[in-house]
Amino acid sequence: MxxxxxxxxxxxxxxxxxxxxxxxxxxxxxxxEGLDHVVLYGWHPVSEALANAARGLHRxxxxxxxxxxxxxxxxxxxxxxxxxxxxxINALLGADAVHQGLYLEAEHLPAPAIESxxxxxxxxxxxxxxxxxxxxAIVRTAAAFGVTAIVTTARHAPNATGVMAKSASxxxxxxxxxxxxxxxxxxxxxxxxxFARVGLDSEAETPLDDVEKRAGMVVVLGAEGKGLRxxxxxxxxxxxxxxxxxxxxxxxxSNAAAISLYALTRGRAx
Length: 270
Description:
Layout: E1 18-19, E2 38-41, H1 43-51, E3 57-62, H2 64-74, E4 82-83, H3 86-93, E5 102-106, E6 122-127, H4 132-144, E7 149-153, H5 162-168, E8 177-180, H6 183-192, E9 196-200, E10 206-207, E11 217-222, H7 230-234, E12 238-241, H8 253-265
Parallel strand pairs: 1-4, 3-4, 6-7, 6-11, 7-8, 9-11, 9-12, 10-12
Antiparallel strand pairs: 2-5, 3-5
Helix pairs in contact: 4-5, 4-8
């Protein structure tokens, strides 16, 4: 589903950039994000999106240093960048956004149907986790552990916004989001296909290390504070806890995702 770079040529010589008058504010405000396209910013989200042939591109705004770095790393770009001052990107994103001189308007990535995931897939399911920073961090971790896809719901879940993409640090290009209407129904359907559904619960009787590893697995994570909803818990084959040995006995959900994926992928079949 993603495109990989195979030794792109190094950038040579001076570039011919399209200049905009100083103080000009680019059109296409980020307010359209989530409707017909998504806004990505920062080095990893933008560079990974440009390298992903499945990602449709609309518009790339970049500073001179940003363009030079992109061309040095990627070679010929799939879209012609518009040279702007950092202040022009600040005007679109706000002064607090760490954009590193890169702003991209792109199409949403196509999402696979949940029925199409292979029988040996490793999935992560999110039960009403709404914070885009947490979801982005989970996506980044999922990409690091080779997760096939992340299952989330249309309601009570953040869209693939620029904030999420920045936290995911390019992970959105490698781990698709599968949006379902009802998480419980999706978990039931996966169970009927033989997937082991492991729900994370701090009060569970089973330690995470004791969970049987299977080829097809779903790691189910609940929102911080609330945890897994009762219906979601009922759709899991096992509820497991992370055993902590220090004074603090809990971590945020993105850290819990990393610990769980590490524990469940060691020696996993497939």
